[in-house]
Amino acid sequence: MNKDIFVKALKLRHRLHQFPELSGEEVETRKRIKKFLQDNSNMEIVDKGMWFYAKYTPEVPTDRKIAFRADFDAIKVDEQLPLPYTSENKGVSHKCGHDGHSAALAAFALSVEEEGADCNIYFLFQHGEETGIGGGPASELLYEEDIQEVYAIHNWPGAPFGSIGLRNGTINCASKGMEIRVKGEPAHASEPENGKNPTMMLSRTILELKHIANLNRYKGLVLATIVQVDIGEASFGVSAHKGRLLLTIRAELEEELERLQQEIQDYVQKEAEKGEFEVGFAFYDEFPETYNDPACVEHLRRLSRENGWPINEMEMPIRRSEDFGYYLKKRPGVLIWLGAGESWPPIHSEAFDYNDGLIEKTMEVFWAITRDFEKRHQG
Asked: Please, what is the end-to-end C-alpha distance for the chain in angstroms?
């Protein structure tokens, strides 16, 4: 690897880390990555608004097309955390390593232009992964350009450095935020029998979740996690008449996520009818399952053996969601979980920072995938 490229990418990574932006607000982050590519390459860069891509076109025309994706949004953190745990933008930090993902993909782009390749390569830089808003629109590029395969890498603290985390099928669970709103009738706190208080109804719903989300009733992993309960208000003269229950529901299989959601809704509706409550539902941060193509995973296993990379075979999918699932619904490919080190601080923890050694390792893996893609699609 050209060390000059690594040094440039490292500076970019640290610059992105210094000025993180939340999902949907990554205006300056996008500009910085684009400028880096414009200043250091001659590749075509296409701005799509919230996201963009760079394209490498080989000297000899070919219809072989492959894409690599990186995300660049950050998350909210405690504003009181000291540097380097936070950044110049107080209350925001790259605690998932997306600054490193983007720097590594930018470095790979520069390396491809320097060394050349025998296929069209799309380097896609995406916003809004943390909330799931970016993957859907950005993945449309796969259809627009008729791209054949797509890949991404996510850093994985706790796994041996450089290990290749692989799984056939679902590697990240589908999930969504679910809000249940219930409204009854107010009454004076001295006469609760004259009102309709949703407290017991929501309490029964919470208890029923244990049955609805019982793993013995499903083929794969399912979870219903309570994130907030809000009933009534701080007024001691009024019996509660409104309430909200917020859940995150997730599942290994999308059809079972839909079943889980429907069973919760059916139960709530039945309870609401009994007590004559008004009920409503809302959904947030929706992610599909991230489903690795088994054939592409097998190519990665072979490449790992050929290159001496340790393979981390994953028996269970990662519970947290990833909007790379939108891409894998459109084209075959793989989301790879790349080991950052067994003692590396966990993602989203206060002590986490991206392991800069993964920049070179990501480039190595992306190069191997590219060369293998070229061979498999000759002629």
From this structure: 29
Which residue shows structure tokens 């880390």? 17
DSSP annotation of 343 = T
Consecutive H or E run containing 265: helix 254-275
Number of Cβ within 10 Å of residue 206's Cβ equals: 14
Compute the distance between CA of residue 211 and CA of residue 208 in angstroms, rounded to an integer: 5
Distance CA 190, CA 125 (A): 59
How many whole angstroms separate alpha carbon 314 and alpha carbon 50? Answer: 33
Q: CA 224 to CA 131: how far, in whole Å?
A: 18
**157: CB partners within 8 A, 6+ apart:** 340, 341, 344, 345, 346, 347, 352, 355
Percentage of the residues of the chain whose pLDDT score is greater than 90: 94
Q: What's the CA angle centered on 171, arms 99 and 1, to 5 degrees?
A: 45
Residue 226's SS3 state is strand
Per-residue pLDDT tens over the stretch 48-65: 999 999 999 999 999 999
CB 46 within 8 A of CB 52: yes
pTM over cut 0.90: yes
Half-sphere exposure of 226 (CA within 13 A, CB side): 13
d(CA 288, CA 173): 7
Distance CA 287, CA 2 (A): 37
Strand partners, 169: 292
pLDDT in tens, 321-369: 999 999 999 999 999 999 999 999 999 998 999 999 999 999 999 999 9
